Amino acid sequence: MKRKSFALHWRRTRRNILKTISKGIITTVAGAFALLGPAMVTQADEGLPKTVMITPGRLLLSEDFARPVASILAGRAAPRKGNWRVFSGQWDFADGALRGRQLPEDGRSAFVVYSMPFTSGVIQFDLRLDGCRQVIFRIQDAIPEHICSVRINSDGFSAQKDDHDHQGPDQAVPFGQVALPIAAGEWKQLLVEINGNTMTATMDGRTIRGSDSLLVAEKATVELVVTGQTASFRNLRVWEAASAR
Fold first, then answer.
1. Which of 66, 78, 86, 200 could form a disulfide with 71 if both were Cys (CB 3.0 to 4.6 A apart)?
2. What is the sign, positive or negative, of the torsion defined by CA atoms of 77, 81, 83, 89?
3. Beta strands 198-203 and 90-94, pairing class
4. First CA to last CA across the chain, in angstroms?
5. 211 vs 95, 100, 148, 201, CA distance in Å?
């Protein structure tokens, strides 16, 4: 009887020990995830811009310009169909950035275009005025005709719905202008959001907002435009819109 009693006692004791160990492991693991979880989420969100209108969704385009892009280096000799295409000007890579310059013989600003269909989205990139008169970020449809643009110069930036038919009755509609001195050689970050018929343009915490029915149109290309001397670009990102705020 004593042997049976001891065996029964030992089985119960061992069962309790295993339960205690198991609970300790679960608690430890849960605690570890509790500690790591927020840090992991924060790191995942670090690359997302601080938007004013849209929650960014799937990343559609990521181009640092830290390395040369073959189709840009090929200039106008590159195939007309593709991702990046040069329409005018001189484009090269220096100091980890894309650099554009207007050529007098072109009779127009320097244009580089990326083909990418989307409707609503978030666009962010860094730019630097290196002596140019103006930089334009523009979005076009598939016709191709202008939809909207943001213009940046040494005095600040402006946003507008563009003239969509040039020689027809449509006219550009200014959404606003922000006075913001921008020194030559100073990097600035531009954030553009388009959701439905509304767009915003933000730089240094200053935002322009405007609405027009044309903004609902399907977009086909994004363009970087340089008027005059040199401007540089880096860290271009485009996200589709996950939701509006």
1. 78
2. positive
3. unpaired
4. 74
5. 37, 30, 11, 12
User: Is the bond preceding 49 in cis, omega lying within 30 degrees of 0?
Assistant: no
What is the C-alpha to C-alpha distance for residues 68 and 116, in angstroms, rounded to an integer? 20
Q: SS3 helix, strand, coil % of the chain, rounded to 5?
A: 25, 50, 25
For 148-200, how does the pLDDT look when each residue is reduced to its tens digit (9 = 90+)?
999 999 999 999 999 998 777 889 999 999 999 999 999 999 999 999 999 99
What CATH topology corresponds to 54-244? Jelly Rolls (2.60.120)
Where do the domains of the chain lie? 1-46, 54-244
Q: CA triplet 45, 48, 52: central angle to 5 degrees?
A: 120
Residue 175 in tokens: 């959404």
Q: Are 185 and 128 spatial neighbours (Cβ–Cβ below 8 Å)?
A: yes
Q: What pLDDT score was predicted for residue 46?
A: 53
